[in-house]
Design brief:
Elements lengths: L18 E11 L2 H13 L5 E14 L2 E14 L4 H11 L7 E9 H11 L12 E5 L5 H8 L1 H4 L2 E7 L5 H8 L4 E3 L2 H4 L2 H15 L3 E4 L8 H6 L4 E5 L11 H7 L4 E8 L9 E8 L6 H24 L3 E4 L2 E4 L1 H9 L7
Parallel strand pairs: 5-6, 5-8, 6-7, 8-9
Antiparallel strand pairs: 1-3, 1-4, 2-3, 9-10, 10-11, 12-13
Helix pairs in contact: 4-11
The chain binds 5-O-phosphono-beta-D-ribofuranosylamine (GRF).
């Protein structure tokens, strides 16, 4: 008689998954401090399980017409397939290079390691900044509205992913960079044509995949194909009470027309120039002694309140664009009225 205990019931090794598929994202950076900063952000924001830094590597490439060989460090970012779009977006925002190589390689992890990576990465906690709706800002010059959008991002519940300019000398590029914001310049002059410049900006936007594109003093008329590509997501601020005074030089024109009220409008962008559906406005009285500069300065102070509030309300889905129509919730009406903003019926 066989009195030995029955064998423990356990699945045969062949029926257990022996591996799990994941993704390793490779990128190169110029310094150890960049490598450590990026690794810490990606792990802290639960975008990957682990980042390994491989050092040193040497990379040879042509940049601005010159073949260069530089020492670099390579980051191996161990993540999941589901997290790849977020990793890519975040890397572009925090990477020191204007054109980083971000290469995703399919990987077979061991079962236990794969489960650990998945546990580290998901689910994303909703309070981490990377989960907030993202905003890419297009600006050509001084950028005081862009800076106001950056300043109010935490309070209003969105995240500025990048500032993109068509002017490499624009003061906003230096100012945004000083705030730790990813900046990209696609100069109109270096691009050859406005069409080519906007193609380059569109490529950058496709990589960043922002929820909202905010035009904050972007001095180009967008091509119809560009407007269509980002339809429903393009929001502009204009310094007049539209439909009055579309185009340039609005403050002088308001004074010459004898307007008693002047102000600013935030609107959805359509194919026309300053013609898209109005989202919100702010109105201030004109003073008879006003110069265009004095009036502009007073309007600008209100633009800095209006634009972040509108972008925040869109991020919170309290204001939505549906088929080129603006739908405003009761919360947004109440919040906007309390701040003195005018919202369309
Ligand atoms: C602002 O008045 C804005 O309304 C208009 O261009 C101006 C840009 O100023 N579209 P800044 O660069 O944001 O300081």
């Amino acid at each position: 008689m066989n009195d030995s205990p029955p064998p423990l019931s356990r699945p045969s090794p062949a029926s257990l998954p022996s591996s799990s598929s994941g993704i390793i994202v490779l990128t190169t950076v110029p310094s150890e401090s960049d490598a450590d900063r990026i690794a810490t952000i990606l792990v802290a924001e639960r975008l990957c399980g682990c980042v390994s830094v491989v050092s040193p590597v040497r990379s040879t490439y042509r940049w601005e017409g010159t073949v260069t060989t530089e020492p670099e460090l390579q980051l191996e970012i161990k993540t999941t397939r589901a997290a790849l779009p977020s990793v890519r977006r975040r890397l572009i925002e925090i990477h020191p290079y204007e054109l980083p190589a971000i290469i995703a390689v399919p990987a077979e992890y061991g079962a236990a390691f794969g489960r650990w990576v998945e546990g580290e990465v998901a689910p994303y906690p909703h309070d981490v900044p990377v989960c907030r709706p993202s905003v890419a800002i297009l600006a050509s010059g001084r950028g005081s509205n862009a800076l106001s959008l950056i300043e109010h991002q935490h309070h209003e519940g969105y995240r500025v992913a990048a500032v993109i300019s068509d002017n490499a000398e624009a003061p906003i590029i230096t100012a945004a960079r000083a705030q730790g914001i990813h900046t990209v310049a696609h100069p109109r002059t270096a691009s050859g044509t406005t069409h080519r410049c906007q193609e380059r900006i569109a490529d950058t936007l496709r990589d960043i995949a922002p929820d909202i594109v905010a035009l904050a003093g972007f001095m180009q008329i967008l091509k119809p194909w560009f407007v269509d590509m980002f339809a429903g997501r393009l929001i502009n601020i204009h310094p007049s009470l539209l439909p009055k005074h579309p185009g340039l030089d609005t403050h002088r024109r308001a004074l010459e027309a004898g307007d008693t009220e002047h102000g600013a409008t935030v609107h959805l962008v359509d194919r026309g120039v300053d013609t898209g559906p109005i989202i919100a406005q702010v109105s201030i009285p004109c003073v008879s002694s006003d110069t265009p500069e004095e009036l502009a300065a007073r309007v600008l102070a209100h633009e800095h309140r209006l634009f972040p509030w509108v972008i925040g309300a869109i991020a919170r889905k309290e204001i939505q664009a549906e088929d080129n129509r603006i739908v405003i919730s009761a919360e947004a009406r109440q919040g906007g009225a309390a701040l003195g903003f005018l919202l369309p019926e």
